[in-house]
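Section 3.1: Structural characterization of target chains.
Under the original work plan, the team committed to producing a structural model for every single-chain target entering the pipeline before any wet-lab resources were allocated. The record below documents one such target. The sequence was received from the expression subgroup and is listed exactly as submitted; it comprises 77 residues.
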Amino acid sequence: MEGDSNRRGEEQKRFDLEDRTAKFGETVVSFAKKIPVSLVTQPMIPQLVRTATIAMARGKGTASDLRGDPSWKETDR
């Protein structure tokens, strides 16, 4: 019985992490839209957005998930 409760707790944490990751990505995109564009910030804005949303785009919860997973290096090109 305790194992079922533990599994549900872990599943709830996973969904919470997915929600928080998505919210973080949305917040960064919103913030990036407010950054004044200049010669300095122009290349930095897309990098910021890519970095903040890569976990969301790949369906990964944390950067630590990527350490042993070489698929994050694959591109869709």
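The mean pLDDT is 76.
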